[in-house]
Every structure is written in structure tokens, then in C-alpha cells.
Amino acid sequence: MTDRVQGFPAFPAREGRGPFARTWWGRAWLRAMEDTALDLRQLRRGRRYAVAGLVGPISVSPGRIAATVDDVDGGPFRTSVHLAELSTADWERLIGRAADRAGNLAALLDRHLPPELADDVPLLPGIGDLDPECECPGFELPCRHAAALSFQVSWLLDADPFVLLLARGRTEREILHELGERTARPVEGILAADAYARAVPPLPDLADFSPVPR
């Protein structure tokens, strides 16, 4: 698998209470899905499926996030969420803004997305920007399977905003390479070799999550 297609292991079932997204960019992802939904029952079932661990391994590639979702009523079903890749001009603006301030690159390396990077670029999805697909017989979109996938994607985004950047069209290595070409000195003592070697932090502990009641 190339670095333009990243795979993430399935989340196990969890119990407890807590928010699905803890970061501002994770919450923006969920708002884009929730504000588009026509059937809130599908969202509630999707939340339960996500917490119950019914979503299989998730693959992320430019413009597409996909997984297979099991179902108590059948399945499993292949489902995906599509979003537009950023244009070349948008990437130029985003990389330029990230390179303008050393703190922006340092924040990215710490797996934090500075809000100013989304000021002039449609980095975060808005209403209608997420296009769900599913092979299930339901006609509501997002269906419970696409909703379950989207809820779990917010956990991935919380742990690593480069997941969102990959879905928007560029890998972490490509972004860091472009930033390295634009910056004349290491950021806060971080060498380029160290930047590429930075380990992704573990995914968030989901022990405090619980299904939403029917």
C-alpha cells in the first residue's frame, strides 16, 4: 500500500459516555455530515454502530474514505465518503500560510491543525461537501453505515489532522517536503529527517464513549 492510500485498523467496541470529536477540526467534520442528514434516525443508528465496533478497517486516499460496515440486519456493506480534493491554487495558499509562521509547521508536527490554515482555503468540509455512498438497500444518505464511518473518521482526525489533508489530496510526506523547500531553517530545532520520523500518536482512548439511546 502506498502512502497515498493509508489503512487504519478497526476500532473495537467501547462503552461509556463522551463526545465523538474532541478537536475543532473533528467537530467541523461531524457538523458537515450532521447538517446534511435528512434522517436523524440514521445518524443515531450510525453512532451506535460506530461505538459498537461494527466498522471495519478504514482506508483513506485522496478524495475518498472507505470501510466495510456490518449490520445487525444484514451486511456487511461497503460504504464510503467522498470529498473534493483541494485545487493547486488552494494548496499553494495553504502551504504558503503554513510556511509563513514557524509555529504552524511545529503545530502540524505535533498533530494539531492551526485554525488559520483554514482561513483562506476550504480545508474543512461544509454543508454538502461530504458525498456518502453505500451498497445497502436504504435510500437515505447518509445511511447508518456511512454515518458510522463518518463518526469513526472524527476519531482518526482527532489523532492526526494529516488524515484530513490526505483526503484533501496530499500526503504528509508531500506536504512536509514542500514546506521544507520553502523554509530556510528547521522549525524550533526540528530537522527534516526528524520531522519525517515523528511517530503518529496513538488513537484516542475511546473507553468513555457510549451508544446513543434509541
UniProtKB/TrEMBL annotation:
InterPro entries xref list: Znf_SWIM
Domain named SWIM-type: residues: 119-154
UniProt keywords, alphabetically: Metal-binding, Zinc, Zinc-finger
Any Pfam family: SWIM
Signal peptide bounds: none
Keyword Lipid biosynthesis listed: no
Name used for this protein in its record: SWIM zinc finger family protein
Species per Swiss-Prot/TrEMBL record: Amycolatopsis rhabdoformis
